[in-house]
Amino acid sequence: MMIKVEFLGPIAREPMEMEATTLAEVSAKLKADERLAGWLEKCAVALNDTMVTDLTTPLQAGDRVSLLPPVCGG
Fold first, then answer.
1. In the chain, which end has fewer C-beta atoms inside a 10 angstrom radius, N or C?
2. For residue 44, what are the CA distances in angstroms to 1, 5, 31, 34?
3. Mean pLDDT by 10-residue block, N- to C-terminus, for the chain (74 residues)?
4. 2-68: which CATH number, 3.30.530.20, 3.10.20.30, 3.40.190.170, 3.40.1350.10?
5. How far apart are alpha carbons 56 and 71 in whole angstroms?
């Protein structure tokens, strides 16, 4: 099923669509991109605006996965 992945903040990547049924599949596909692999260890993940940590979380068609890099405030 097709889902959308968003990259927020300094990751500076355009959103992409991909076929995936779990967050683990999304992670594996993103790790294949050297420019994204380093971010994956640092980022929080949101599924349809809800924070998630379990990579076995199932995905539905049309879901939106957002990668949220750490930020510094002041």
1. C
2. 23, 13, 15, 18
3. 94 95 96 90 94 95 96 61
4. 3.10.20.30
5. 26
